[in-house]
Amino acid sequence: MPSRTVSAPRVPRYASRPDRRLPDAELQRDAAGDVIEEEDENEHQGRGEEDDDGEDDDSDATGPAPSNEPSEQPLASTASMTIKGSLRDWDKSLESSQALRSNITDATVSYAELFSTISGAKGNAMDTAFRDMIDATFEAQLRREAMKRIADQVAKGEAVYDAVGAYERQVQEGLEAYKAKTTRQKYLHHEGYKTFKERVWEAHTDEAMPPLADFIDIEDGDEPDDDDDFTAGAVRQEYKCPLTMALLKDPVTSSVCHHSYSKEAILDYITQARNRGESAKCPRSGCTKVISPSTLKDDRDLAKRVATHKRRMELAEGNKRTQAAEIID
């Protein structure tokens, strides 16, 4: 008996797209479960055929052939759990970014304390590393926002089509807008970058830091902003508590007026005011804002800056004693 050549079954183009409905007119299953692709009876259908006289014969035309493309399906409501998981992942990424920025700051401050400078290639490298983390954090926030937008639509019961495409378009538009900004537009108003520069500056000098704008060159697209706080004159950080007049201990900062105090001292101050039936006003000279325990937040960053300032004071005092001893000798 002659052998029969069996050709491998042709995989339908829809087989790799299980998430989309297969048109019933396109595919059928036989009794054995094999997929049989329905043959097109007339490959020229919709185009018309040329008759013997060379003219189009429209007698058999039945209109345009139906599209072979499967219809787009909306995102299933069950996808909400997956989206929530992605949001949690982005939250963790943002927390990691914050921790990395803090580590870069601490390392740069330590270098500045050790060598009493942060200029040169090392300083530029650390500054670039911090800016890179700001950029990475922006992208993480952008992607989280795009994912959150889809999650909100699903939660409202809205039909979300082409979720991946919508997500990527929103992210791409945001990244392009961010990349088009100048260096000043990216970093001049970033509180984290301002704090980074202040801490590094204070680690190697007792002088007040110049305006942040002095560290960032003007580029095409930047506009003068003489009234901006970031271009104002140098301001010296106050490290003493207005109540104890000693260096801040366990500093807390008011969310109302942004003044800082030693935690134990300010809480005792508020309690005494309440015992007198009075509102506790900020003890900082010239400030009239009312404060309360709920408006006070632990300020870890300020605590680090106080520690740096204290080390510089102790180092300066030690140098004075050494110089005095050398003079006596």
From TrEMBL:
Residues 1-78 are annotated as: Disordered. Signal peptide: none annotated. It is found in: Nucleus. Its main location: nucleus. Residues 68-78 have a biased composition (Polar residues). InterPro entries: Nse2(Mms21) (IPR026846), Znf_MIZ (IPR004181), Znf_RING/FYVE/PHD (IPR013083). GO terms for cellular component: nucleus; Smc5-Smc6 complex. One of its GO terms (biological process) is double-strand break repair via homologous recombination. This is SP-RING-type domain-containing protein.
